[in-house]
Amino acid sequence: MKILGIPRFSVLGWSAGGSASLVLAAKHPDAVRKLVVWGANAYILPTEIAAYRKIADVNTWAKHLRVPMVEVYGKERFAQYWARWVDCMSVALEAKMDICSEHLKNIKCPTLVLHGCKDPLVDPVHAPYLIENIKKSVLYIYTDGKHDIHIR
Q1: Chain segment 66-117, per-residue pLDDT in tens
Q2: What is the C-alpha to C-alpha distance for residues 148 and 119, in angstroms, rounded to an integer?
Q3: For a Cys-Cys bond, which of 29, 44, 83, 119 suits 147, CB 3.0-4.6 Å?
């Protein structure tokens, strides 16, 4: 953003991008003006790994979820990337690695946390955890929302 000449900006982050956005806001509090995250988790739970493994075969995904990813990455590469991601998250859980919970206290910008109650990938404990650990944060819950609340 510095190269683009944009010193302050707002960030939207979904899923792993939501977790990455939380780290970005914590590490660059003078640059991130506002933050919106959804489908983001601060740490990894065994139930989440089980959910990832259930959808490890991208060929079983709903067309509206699979096709956009295939268009960006290609069919084979997307399948490889997703499989690696599931494996890496499994290793991270076994190693008791943190995703971003240690960074949350450093987030200074107003933060909107969105959560779909029917999200099969992110445990519902993450949304209140984020709110409790980010000073200027609010939570909005989509009672019928899933992981991809921005698509529906």
Answers
A1: 999 999 999 999 999 999 999 999 999 999 999 999 999 999 999 999 999 9
A2: 8
A3: 119
Which residue of the set 103, 115, 126, 147 is catalytic? Answer: 147
Set out the domains of the chain in order of their start, with CATH numbers: 1-43+98-152 (3.40.50.1820), 49-97 (no CATH)
Q: How many residues does the chain have?
A: 152
- For the question of residue 64 being annotated catalytic, the response is no
Q: Catalytic: 28?
A: no
147 is catalytic: yes
- Give one DSSP letter per residue of 31-71, joined into a string: TEEEEEEES--SS--HHHHHHHHHT--GGGS-HHHHHHHHH
